Amino acid sequence: MKKVSFNMIRSAGIKTDYAKPEYYFDQLDKVRAADLVLFPEYWMVNSIIYGMSKAIFPSPATYHLGHDKIEMTRAFKATYPHRIPKTLIYGKNPYTIERVLEEFHYPFVAKKAKSSMGQGVWLIKNDQDWLEYVENHDTFYVQEFIPNDRDLRVIVIGEEVVGAYWRVSEAFLNNVAQGANFSYEDIPEDVVKEVQTIANTLSINHAAFDVIVTEDGFYILEFNVFFGSEGLLPLGVKLPQKIEEYLNTLG
């Protein structure tokens, strides 16, 4: 299978040709000659899969759902609604500003639709926090706050989970980029297995799922298409190797 990648760092160790995103339209011959395009920029995806009929990795579903938390949440609500926290998505107007406060008590979580690595997430603790969020967003993405000191990160490559670990923090955000630590003890394998099933159902094949586990079950907060692999190193998992093993199964 002939491959071309638009991300040299994420493709390190994978046998592939390379192209530079900034010269995309000057390198279309490389795309046309490839059987599989690896790690295109999001803005390239539609022209590659629809314009040139080329397969991509990560999958189209991974890109399209992972690019926008609103679309991601709608997909989860349509398939596994019991696995996401209570979530409201509204356009901004006087009615919805008040409606959110009728539906949620402080504290609750508000997010930016397109963000990652713990950015664009706020704990709304009072009226001032809420009004600041309202002022800066035309679309409200508001979610139930579930108190916790950790979340479970589950990393899916292809159709398999290649690693799972806790991210532990005393702060609001359990994100390593925001200062969280890793733990590998007491991983709930039943949760990991169900997350794998959810990923397969939605055709998500390169993602890190962030999950809160409670006494009543578990809830998926989101998944990230591009994620750090530091947490996999103590598990002996080499991400490029796992990716290439999966790509080899595609023919």
TrEMBL record:
It holds the Pfam family RimK. The lineage of its organism: Bacteria, Bacillati, Bacillota, Bacilli, Bacillales. The keyword ATP-binding applies. The keyword Nucleotide-binding applies. InterPro entries: ATP-grasp, ATP-grasp_RimK-type, ATP_grasp_subdomain_1. Keywords: ATP-binding, Nucleotide-binding. Residues 74-251 form the ATP-grasp domain. This is ATP-grasp domain-containing protein.
